[in-house]
Amino acid sequence: MTGFPWWAVLLPAPAVSIEVGPEAFQLAKTAAEGSPLQTEVCGKMRRMTLSSRFTLPGQVRAVAAFDPSGPLTVTGYGANPMVTVITRVDLSGKVAWQRTYPGTGRPQSRLSMEGTLWVAYPDGDGRLLEGVLPDGSTGPTARPECRPDEEMGAFVLLDDGFVISWVSASRLVRGERSRPMSVSEPRVARYTTEGECLWSTPIVLGAVSFPGAVEMGDRTGWEVRPRRPWIPEEIGVDHWEPLLVSADRIAASFTDTRGGIGRTFFLHLGSGEIVSATSPAPTGRKAIAGPGQFLIGSQGYGAFTTSRFGRDGTETGRWASHGAMLVDKNGSASGPELENILPSRSRFRMLAPDNTLVDGPALTGYYTSDPAMDCEGTTVFWRDGKLLAVDKDLAGHELSAMDDSRAIIGRALLLNEGCVAISLDNEVLVFRTPLGPLAEGPWPCGEANLQGNPLLS
Q1: How many whole angstroms separate alpha carbon 310 and alpha carbon 295?
Q2: Cβ-contact 287, 295 below 8 angstroms
């Protein structure tokens, strides 16, 4: 209820099962114990053993590789979450170099195809993008023009510069104890590699609402009623895939940070013109579906859908499922569902062209890594303490298992010789599997590619 008037309460749509968010998972898990969760993930693919595991200074937020042979570039926190730590490490855990930067509590980095890591951090009254060369030395820097009360919500590295989503700076970044008199308007801007602004487009989220959002209080006579549209007090970038660039289109997602209702705005990369925008809806997972095309998911308040949007910004398909979807070279989407319900009723799903679903194996547990797909169409991901694979025929296989219920899970990185790297909280685990090289396609793994830069040129 934090952030809403004292008389208003947002309630989820009624459901027979228990719907939970990540914060409530442990309570729901305890309540569900005693009812064994069955799984159809079995198959005959041989089990794999752990190749290596190593610990980082703090919680891992991003793992990337500019080459399938490694090394890994790891971005995370230090002992203090307001410090960003960058580590270059090989697959055995040997550290080549490590650097620290001032943080915002939201460490951000993007890796180039050449191995230069761009790190975003506050610098005085401005915000700096600094390139770190493969040997750990400082490379090019850019200081994009911004206001002191703005911070980078997200950025994507282009071949010739950057696209940045700007939002109102958090209180920690501003160094203020009280709420500011006015809140910066969100915007999306494009910059050259040197930081020169080519265009800047303001974003107006407007009043938001959704049929599943309800309220209860004095003005409703303490009856549960649909909540009337409201103006968000605080707007941020979406938590999942907030900024995607595909061909000449940008998908920039902003949300009411306290209500979880947001919109995705489709912009022209060349001019910054807004082509279209989605209607307000609960936020969800997203992916690049092809040149100028995107998958936009929605979950919460009774919503559980994934939609495909074309280059003109219109919806061209919708499925009754939501999850971490991959898109192969043929444009087919599939992946593990991520429903906020325990006991789990999620499955691995394929989104069929006629807007129906093709069922894969059932999935136990809750927390799930972003998956990765190999060249043979087999998808690998971490869920419920297991490294799982689902092949192109939708048969499930358990590759490895351990007693580990940590909730902070990174994406699956599929490297050479079947190596799969997964981050769990402050550790990176590397498995050797029989999988092939990473598949081709617009979205074969989380963040679109090994570099962790959601761009399809």
Answers
A1: 9
A2: yes
Cβ atoms within 10 Å, residue 262: 26
Question: Distance between terminal CA atoms of the chain?
Answer: 42
Buried b (16+ CB within 10 A) or exposed e, 185-206: ebbbbbbebebeebebbebebe
Residue 173, SS3? helix
For residue range 82-93, list pLDDT tens digits in order. 999 999 999 999
The two tokens of residue 380 are 């690998």
pLDDT tens per residue across span 326-378: 999 999 999 999 998 889 999 999 999 999 999 999 999 999 999 999 999 99
Residue 118 CA to residue 91 CA, distance in Å, equals: 21
Cα dihedral 75, 116, 370, 14 in deg (nearest 10): 70
CA distance 398 to 31: 26
**DSSP-assigned beta bridge partners for residue 163:** 156, 190
**In terms of Cα–Cα distance, which of 389, 396, 384 is closest to 424?**
384
- Concatenated DSSP letters for 94-130? -EEEEEEEE--SS-EEEE-TTSPEEEEEEETTEEEEE
Length of the chain: 457
Of 230, 225, 175, 222, nearest in space to 205 by CA: 230
Burial class of residue 304, CB neighbours in 10 A (0-12, 13-18, 19+): buried
Look-up of token digits 């002191």: 148
Q: Are 315 and 275 in contact (CB under 8 A)?
A: no
Question: By the 8 A CB rule, do 98 and 87 touch?
Answer: yes
Q: What's the CA gap between 215 and 222, in Å, rounded?
A: 9
Prediction pTM value: 0.87
Amino acid code (one letter) for 442: P
Per DSSP (E only), the strands in 227-342 are 235-237, 243-246, 249-256, 261-268, 274-277, 281-282, 286-290, 293-300, 303-309, 315-319, 326-327, 333-336, 341-342
